[in-house]
Amino acid sequence: MNLLNSDHFWQFACTFYAKPEQQTTLLALQNQQGKNVNLCLLLLYLDSLNLSINTQQLNELTQVVSEFDTHVLQPLRAARSYLKTNQNTISDYATIRAELLSTELKLEKQQQHMLIEAVNEFELEGAQDSVSSTAPDNSALYL
């Protein structure tokens, strides 16, 4: 069993997401294809560690994020979008927006923690364990 650290994953994700071209790509995957950004980031993180997951494990990870997305993150994003559209009628919009963004970031971190907990239950295949010497491409399974 591999024990991955959610704080290390968070740092990886923040660094990766901070690149403007990556942020644009990830948000397009989220908004146009319904993909989960944290799951995309996790798959890239696993790639960086030379760890592979299989289709069944990916399906389990998708289930981990699905309910949290549906009941927590998507409604928060919808509220933020609504407020942005109507910001001229919202008193103290800037403060409310900042607080919502802060809350969303904390919830994204929570979802990443949930993903790491799930992955830590898997038997992951490392590149050195496989017959092939090719680098893992976990994102291809998801995208």
Structural features:
elongated, mainly alpha, 143 residues, single chain, two-stranded antiparallel sheet
Description of the molecule:
This protein is an all-alpha fold and 143 residues long. It has one domain (6-125). It is built from six helices and two strands. It has helices at 6-17, 20-33, 37-48, 55-85, 93-119, 138-142; strands at 51-52, 125-126. The protein has a two-stranded antiparallel ribbon. The longest helix has 31 residues, at 55-85. The model has no long low-confidence stretch (mean pLDDT 90). This is TIGR02444 family protein. InterPro entries: CHP02444.
Radius of gyration over alpha carbons?
17 Å
The ordered H/E elements are HHHEHHEH
Number of helices: 6
Task: Give the percentage of residues in beta strands.
Answer: under 5%
Strand line-up in the sheet with most strands: 1-2
Give the N-to-C terminal Cα separation: 26 Å
* Largest sheet descriptor: 2 strands, antiparallel
Shape, principal axes of CA atoms:
elongated
Total beta strand runs: 2
Task: Report mean pLDDT, rounded to a whole number.
Answer: 90
Helix content: over 70%
Helix/strand class: mainly alpha
- Enumerate the spans where pLDDT stays under 50 for 5 or more consecutive residues: none
Pfam family, one: DUF2390
Protein name: TIGR02444 family protein
